[in-house]
Design brief:
With 102 residues, the chain is of the alpha+beta class. It has one domain. The chain contains 3 helices and 4 strands, in the order H-E-E-E-E-H-H. The chain has a 4-stranded antiparallel sheet, covered by helices on one side. It is globular, with a radius of gyration of 15 Å. It starts with 9 loop residues before the first helix and ends in a 10-residue tail after the last helix. The N terminus is likely disordered.
Length: 102
């Protein structure tokens, strides 16, 4: 096959797409060098994460899981980190809820 994706080892694709990977594709916001917000792999919740110290294949660990924007913003504000105003604005523009269909 000529497709580039078919030439990639599936184990590598899974690793790169894992929620705890540096290369996870659904990062919503990087709060600082130790904290970020992602959309879970199923698209049903936002997850706040903290980066573990030391080198690891999957360095990010979940701190909290949210389906409501207000709860997510409140949780981010309580983290012990300095969040840029532009990042808080980005979070404020998220939909009220995630993972629910009307």
């Amino acid at each position: 096959m000529n497709s580039t994706s078919s030439q990639i080892d599936p184990r590598i694709k899974r690793k790169a797409c894992h929620e705890t990977s540096d290369t996870y594709g659904a990062i919503v916001a990087v709060l600082d060098h130790k904290h970020r917000v992602i959309v879970c792999k199923d698209g049903i919740q936002w997850i706040t994460q903290r980066r573990k110290s030391g080198g690891a294949d999957r360095p990010w660990r979940g701190l909290g899981y949210y389906t409501n924007r207000k709860a997510l913003i409140r949780a981010c504000a309580l983290l012990e980190c300095e969040i840029e105003p532009a990042v808080m604005s980005l979070l404020a523009e998220l939909p009220d809820t995630i993972g629910r269909t009307a």
